Automatic annotation (TrEMBL):
UniProt organism field: Podospora australis
InterPro entries assigned: ATPase_NBD, Hexokinase, Hexokinase_BS, Hexokinase_C, Hexokinase_N
All copies of domain Hexokinase N-terminal, residue ranges: 29-224
The enzyme's E.C. designation: 2.7.1.-
PANTHER family tied to this protein: HEXOKINASE, HEXOKINASE TYPE 1-RELATED
Catalysed reactions, semicolon-separated: a D-hexose + ATP = a D-hexose 6-phosphate + ADP + H(+); D-fructose + ATP = D-fructose 6-phosphate + ADP + H(+)
Alphabetized UniProt keyword annotations: ATP-binding, Glycolysis, Kinase, Nucleotide-binding, Transferase
Keyword hit for Repeat: no
GO cellular component entries: cytosol; mitochondrion
Name used for this protein in its record: Phosphotransferase
Alphabetized Gene3D superfamilies for the sequence: 1.10.287.1250, 3.30.420.40, 3.40.367.20
């Protein structure tokens, strides 16, 4: 904290001069730069393959990227009205919102509460998970509405941010768990009956109207206030994207005979891009993360760019440099805390990159407080450069997905709504991603630094809250208009 009259900390520029770094340490830094740096040619190669994989996912035979139809079949007008609940089941928190869409264009009121998602529930019993969620909903409704027995059922948009097949908008057949979840008996099953059974047991007055993915919610919520929005992205604990496709360009839906020009929001689930390991430049550290994960061979792209993994990649590099290299960093220090898997999250790397001091004193304090390690000056430079390399690679790879959707759809100019902790909080993520997008799409250099890019990635509106409520509203509108294609599961239509 800078007090009144105190000088602000000096600004660090670049990555440091490395003047005082010994040659053996410098050699390791150069080696890490070779491993983690992705040049323009490689970005373009990855993007080309990405476009092909997006198309493959829409085909009848399918591919690694699921490209799930969501049955969200229109953008909002901005004039939707009503009161809706929104439930967001993320990897870290459970969030419950009540959103009132007003009769003023693109305006809404919101009240919300957050509940921690206990770690033991992620690998426990399915019934315990659903009953915990039902309890949180009940607590929220009782707090804001009192006696639940006197309430009519409130329509709910449920943001279920895991790969799911949807034949209807109120159905979600879990394809596989991600974000550290691994609960038996759920994969391959529709999660909605499990969720609704828990609501019924607890007497919670809720009617699930739409099951959505957070990326679809981000797309719809952002389009609610900005008609230039064409893609919704999440760069957080996991990573994903959604966009509107024409039904005529989705061969796997051809049997439904939907009008070719009808829009359909596609939840890409692009974390699974390149599970075959054809183009992504994986390092030995990426391979170790994959091998040690609950789902080896899955989510190859996500494991290189998502917040869940960035700190772990960094940790593995540090342990390797301590154990297996001649330099033996942190010599004669106990690194037991550093050996614990997933003990560092992406906020740890953020703090390192944000350290403004020339001597990296905040980074030194961070290592001492969190890991009981006291790095020397050259080791701090290595730490800083490693964090920069991992953060930069994540941002540059993320741009490949945005570029691929833009290329596939022929978007020359548009806005991309992005949400998630990495996008919103990780230093320089936006700028690094924007620079990579410019390289991939061959835009000319800006003549005016303040000039907007043709395709711009902006902070999104609240997809898992407002987006979920809007999709619930759009669903009810379609039901009321009698346009029932792919809307409600027959068992729930009443």
């Amino acid at each position: 904290m800078v007090g009144l009259g105190a000088k602000p900390p000096p600004s660090r520029k670049g990555t440091g001069s490395f003047i005082d770094v010994p040659k053996d340490l410098l050699k390791e830094i150069k080696h890490l730069e070779q491993l983690f740096t992705i040049d323009t040619a490689k970005l373009k190669e990855i993007t080309d393959h990405f476009v092909h994989e997006l198309e493959k996912g829409l085909s009848v035979e399918g591919g690694s990227i699921p490209m799930n139809p969501t049955w969200v079949m229109s953008y909002p007008t901005g004039y939707e009205t009503g009161t809706f609940l929104a439930l967001d089941m993320g990897g870290t928190n459970l969030r419950v919102c009540e959103i009132t869409l007003t009769d003023q264009k693109s305006e809404f009121d919101i009240i919300q509460s957050k509940y921690r998602m206990p770690e033991e529930l992620k690998t426990g019993d399915a019934d315990e998970l659903w009953e915990y969620i039902a309890d949180c909903l009940l607590q929220f409704i009782e707090t804001h509405h009192g006696d639940v027995t006197k309430l009519d059922k409130i329509p709910l948009g449920f943001t279920f941010s895991y790969p799911a097949t949807q034949n209807y908008i109120d159905e979600g057949i879990l394809q596989r768990w991600t974000k550290g979840f691994d609960i038996d008996g759920v994969e391959g099953h529709n999660v909605v009956p499990m969720f609704e059974a828990a609501l019924q047991r607890r007497g919670v007055p809720i009617k699930l109207t739409a099951l959505i993915n957070d990326t679809t919610g981000t797309l719809i919520a952002s389009a609610y206030t900005d008609t230039s929005m064409k893609i919704g992205c999440i760069f957080g604990t996991g990573c994903n994207a959604a966009y509107m496709e024409d039904c005529g360009s989705i061969p796997k839906l051809a049997h439904l005979n939907l009008p070719p020009e009808t829009p359909m929001a596609i939840n890409c689930e692009w974390g699974a891009f390149d599970n075959e390991h054809k183009v992504l430049p994986r390092t030995p550290y990426d391979e170790q993360i994959d091998n040690d994960s609950p789902r080896p061979g899955q989510q190859a792209f996500e494991k290189m760019i998502a917040g869940l993994y960035l700190g772990e990649i960094f940790r593995l590099v540090m342990v390797d440099l301590h154990d297996n290299r001649e330099i033996n960093i942190f010599a004669n220090q106990d690194i037991e805390k550093l050996r614990r898997p997933y003990t560092l999250d992406s906020s740890f790397l953020s703090s390192i990159e944000e350290d403004p001091y020339e001597n990296l004193s905040e980074t030194a304090d961070l290592f001492q407080n969190k890991l009981n390690i006291s790095p020397n000056g050259p080791e701090l430079e290595l730490i800083r450069r490693t964090a920069e390399l991992i953060g930069t690679r994540a941002a540059r790879l993320s741009a490949c997905g945005v570029a691929a959707i833009s290329r596939k759809k022929g978007f020359k100019e548009c806005h991309v709504g992005a949400d998630g902790s990495v996008f919103n909080k990780y230093p320089h993520f936006k700028e690094r991603g924007a620079a990579a997008l410019r390289e991939i799409l061959d835009w000319p250099e800006k003549t005016n630094p303040k000039e907007d890019d043709p395709i711009e990635i902006l902070a999104a509106e609240d997809g898992s809250g407002v987006g979920a409520a809007l999709i619930a509203a759009l669903t009810l509108q379609r039901v009321q208009s009698g346009n029932m294609h792919g809307i409600l599961h027959p068992e729930n239509f009443r």
